[in-house]
Amino acid sequence: VYTAIISEKIFCPPETAVYLAAYACQAKFGPAISLRNPVPPVKDLLPKSTLDNHNLSIAEWEDRISKWHLKLRDTTFQDAIVEYLDIAQDVELYGASIFEVETRSQVRKWISLDAVGLNIYDSKRKPPTRRHVWSDISSFVATDNKIEIELAHKPKQVIEFAVQNQQVGKLLEGLFVGSKELYSRRKKDDVSSKYVRRSESNSSMRMR
């Protein structure tokens, strides 16, 4: 998710990008020592369009990130990651970005990953035709230009898709790891449990 936001595969508003940068610093470096210490190069923390489209200097961006980083001094590594994912979930297009894939028989499909599960579309202009909640998926592996999704059902079932390139596969794999971690954490801590239960009850293996 982090790489997707920085590379602008997922759009992120400037203010949200600053919050996410602060959580990224907390996860990577721990508590801030003082203002702007430490702050890695801003280009590694914010999308290029954020830097290009606003009249702020690098030092001003560093100050904004650092002020939020200082406020996170009591946030643990694990909580920083979960909070990062929680904020990212609300970012425009997060969990709504649709990726074109192909089946073994070279039929075009589209998939998206969100906070509750994996969606498979016959057309990106229509609702998903299949949906698997994260508890139904045991593994999601990207190798070369292919992704393999193993369902947690018996007998064993594996869904395979070809993707445009290895980078897209790794992006999807990263989104899977982050989304499933957030899903598991929410269920464990009973955070937004009503939302999760409602989403699961309305989901089915085959949507009509």
Strand arrangement in the largest pleated sheet: 1-2-3-4
Cα distance, first to last residue?
30 Å
Query: Which consecutive residue ranges, at least 5 long each, have pLDDT under 50?
Result: 191-198, 201-208
Radius of gyration: 19 Å
Question: What is the strand and helix layout of this fold?
Answer:
Layout: H1 2-6, H2 14-29, H3 48-52, H4 58-71, H5 77-89, E1 99-102, E2 108-113, E3 117-121, E4 130-133, E5 137-143, E6 146-151, E7 157-162, H6 166-189, H7 193-201
Antiparallel strand pairs: 1-2, 2-3, 3-4, 5-6, 6-7
Helix pairs in contact: 2-4, 2-5, 5-6
GO molecular function, one term: actin binding
Pfam families: FERM_C, FERM_M
InterPro entries: Band_41_domain (IPR019749), ERM (IPR011174), Ez/rad/moesin-like (IPR000798), FERM/acyl-CoA-bd_prot_sf (IPR014352), FERM_2 (IPR035963), FERM_central (IPR019748), FERM_domain (IPR000299), FERM_PH-like_C (IPR018980)
Give descriptors for this structure.
7 helices; PH-domain like; alpha+beta; disordered C terminus; Acyl-CoA Binding Protein; four-stranded antiparallel β-sheet
